[in-house]
Design a protein that fits this description.
Keywords: Signal. It holds the Pfam family PSCyt2. This is DUF1549 domain-containing protein. InterPro entries: DUF1549, DUF1553. The protein is mainly α. Among the domains are: 195 residues, no CATH class; 138 residues, no CATH class. 51% of the residues lie in helices and 5% in strands. The chain has 26 helices and eight strands. A two-stranded antiparallel sheet has the order 1-2. Strands 3-4 form a two-stranded antiparallel ribbon. Strands 5-6 form a two-stranded antiparallel ribbon. Strand 1 and strand 2 form a beta hairpin. The longest helix is centred in the N-terminal third of the chain and has 16 residues.
Length: 532
């Protein structure tokens, strides 16, 4: 694919090119060097590194979507190997919990929060299982993108690929407005009626050109299930400029050539003839146009487009560090300059050179120095884009639901009712601005389901019965704080909690209720609801 001058201009604005041969030879520590260079330029001292006890909580939340169990935490802390953090990263990246957590994230990032029916449909029609399998196999990201956009299953196991397009129900503008930020990291809605007023490199023809790539696609029911078929004719519309001039919507997109396609005269009627199609490779699948606009988009635009890698590494950076190198992460245009342009270029080039290896990218980021910085902001530093301290991140609905179960029950179920209730309350993944998490606090404070969940946590192996079996108040409070927060309690915490619980007789129902009140207070605290 040839990159056009407009795209070159954008890439010059949002980043400085790194030679491919140099990028391939750079060590993982290059990430730290780019970050530290900015610290030196800004004359700031970063936060202190965190302890192993805080690192293990942060890493579990990021890689497997939950806090560690006490046993997992103690196993890591007892490990005497100097490279135990590397071993833990590899262990978690290879786990099924990691697969499920990242499928959670990307289901929401690509599809949005849906209704209960949407979630059921995504599972029934194998979108969810296909997404999980992609992360399980560590499938190259560029291949994942191409399979989603082509939406043409190569085998029955691949039928979930159609759902990204299918769920948008033949709304071709909605499809275009989803494709651009999800895979290219740019928002094009503002170019529907005119060229982007601020990011002039995003033109109206890019918006309608992207629509044109998909406007022959239509949902269909087949003997193999829901599919997105494609016509070989039609879709030759025009868009109106602000001047009133009408312009043909050619097959083009930001940073790519126009794809040539014979265009009939305005008064010429096209016939949808059998010779315009070939039979699908699989029995029961829709026939395929010999000239497929979706196929042209995948092969001539998405394949090799530089923004595919740049958008993904920027998004992964935001997932793991709280904000993108370009922020917001899905507005990578000339109005949003990267905080570290050389770093973004190096990461994107390294990602391409690695074959779009997702786990390798994650591993590099979480083993970097700045990932393991304290979340307490150093005095005199206000700019979060320096990444001089760890940005606190609110837990997603899924992280919170799993972590509550792990904290109180020692294990978790991915079908627990808490997931549905929290998804309705906490719709955002990667919010543009991080607030106080008041929605989560109110849900945990006022929802009867949470009180019931805490009150029903009375099995002998559950947290409240287990801590009551310990001998001293100090041991009980310590076990509670370590389980929920992953740290030992302060002296005043022991004194206050033990004093409150001691107002009820040992072994009484009132004593258990005191512990329930304490657990409720800790679960609603920011220390539990945030990754820090």
């Amino acid at each position: 694919m040839r990159i056009l001058p407009a795209a070159i201009a954008l890439l010059c604005i949002v980043g400085v090119a790194v030679d491919a041969s140099l990028a391939a030879d750079l060590p993982v520590g290059q990430i730290d060097r780019f970050i530290e260079q900015k610290w030196q330029q800004a004359d700031v001292q970063p936060a202190e590194p965190i302890s192993d006890s805080r690192f293990v909580r942060r890493l579990y939340l990021d890689l497997v979507g939950r806090i560690p169990t006490p046993q997992e935490r103690e196993t890591f802390l007892a490990d005497q190997r100097p490279d135990k953090r590397e071993h833990l990263v590899d262990l978690l990246l290879g786990s099924e919990d990691h697969v499920v957590h990242f499928a959670d994230l990307f289901d929401t990032l690509l599809m949005g929060r849906g209704s209960d029916r949407d979630y059921c449909n995504r599972r029934e029609h194998q979108w969810r299982s296909w997404l999980e399998q992609a992360f399980r196999e560590n499938r190259p990201w560029d291949e994942v993108v191409q399979e989603i956009l082509l939406a043409r299953p190569a085998s029955p196991d691949e039928r979930g690929t159609v759902w990204f397009l299918y769920e948008r129900e033949n709304d071709h503008q909605k499809i275009a407005e989803a494709v651009a930020p999800a895979f290219f990291g740019i928002r094009i809605e503002c170019a529907q009626c005119h060229d982007h007023m601020l990011a002039g490199e995003i033109e109206q023809r890019h918006y309608w050109g992207l629509v044109a790539f998909f406007n022959r696609s239509e949902n269909a029911k087949t003997e193999n299930g829901p599919r997105v078929k494609e016509s070989a004719i039609g879709g030759f519309s025009e868009f109106a400029k602000l001047s009133g001039e009408s312009t043909p919507n050619l097959l083009t997109f930001f940073g790519a050539d126009v794809v040539d396609e014979p265009r009939p005269d305005a008064d010429q009627k096209q016939e949808d003839l059998p010779e315009l199609y070939v039979e699908a490779a699989l029995k029961g699948e829709p026939q395929v146009p010999k000239f497929s606009r979706r196929e042209q988009f995948v092969s001539h635009v998405a394949n090799g487009h530089p923004l595919i890698a740049r958008a993904f590494v920027n998004r992964m950076w935001a997932i793991l560090l709280g904000r993108g190198i370009v922020h917001p992460f899905d507005e990578m245009d000339s109005t949003h300059e990267p905080s570290h342009p050389e770093l973004l270029d190096w990461l994107a080039q390294d990602f391409r050179d690695s074959g779009h290896d997702i786990r390798r990218l994650i591993r590099m980021i979480v083993l970097s120095r700045h990932y393991a910085l304290d979340s307490r902001r150093p005095e005199g530093i206000d700019d979060p884009a320096l990444f001089a301290w760890s940005l606190e991140r609110p837990l997603t609905a899924e992280q919170l639901a799993r972590s509550m179960q792990v904290a109180l029950h020692g294990s978790f179920r991915n079908d627990h009712p808490l997931f549905r209730q929290l998804r309705e309350t906490l719709p955002d993944v990667l919010p543009e601005t991080v607030g106080t998490g008041v929605d989560a606090a109110l849900f945990l404070s006022n929802n009867p389901a949470v009180n019931t969940f805490i009150a029903e946590s009375d099995e002998p192996s559950h947290l409240i019965p287990r801590i009551q079996q310990l001998d001293t108040p100090a041991e009980q409070v310590t076990a509670l704080i370590v389980t929920l927060f992953g740290r030992p309690p302060a002296d005043d915490e022991i004194e206050r909690i033990a004093g409150f619980v001691a107002t009820a007789e040992p072994g009484s129902q009132a004593r258990s209720q005191r512990w329930q009140h304490v657990v409720w207070a800790l679960l609603t605290s920011a220390e539990f609801r945030f990754n820090h």
